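In response to reviewer comment 3 from the previous cycle, which asked for concrete evidence that the modeling workflow produces usable outputs, we include below a single protein chain processed end to end. The sequence was submitted unchanged, and the resulting structure tokens are shown without manual editing.
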Amino acid sequence: MTVPLFDVLQQEFSQAGERTTVSHGVFVIELAPAQLLPTVERLQSAHAFDVFLDVTAVDWPDHELRFEVVHHFYSTTHKVRVRIKTRVAESSPAVATLRPLYGSAGYMERECHDMYGIVFTGNDDLRPILLYEGFTGHPLRKDYPKQFEQPLVPYRF
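The workflow returned the following structure tokens.
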């Protein structure tokens, strides 16, 4: 079922202007941030991608669009994965939240926000989930200073 599904996805999304490839057995769609939500809605409703696996980012400090936000999905019907990549600038590192489509997205978006500073518009709960309140910076950005010491926070019992 993988090859026919990938052919269908290739035809559908390349006609929409997105760049598509297959990498390591995973169908990859590269698109503009504005196309993220409609594309994910289409994958979920028309192609049975019912599991949202992860969202992360890649920091490319020398590029104009510094951050590559990467979403991973899985179809329990077709037993295949899809990866969606979108690029955003450091000056406005924001993409739409996927919470309306996948409830678990809220937690994963909080983690990506902690580590990279990506803003998920529409997610009203971007409190730190891995770091503590008051942590300065985003530790997975490549310009985060390795020797930087965070302020001590009193331990609460």
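The chain has one domain: 2-121. We consider this sufficient to address the reviewer's concern, and the full set will be provided in the supplementary archive.
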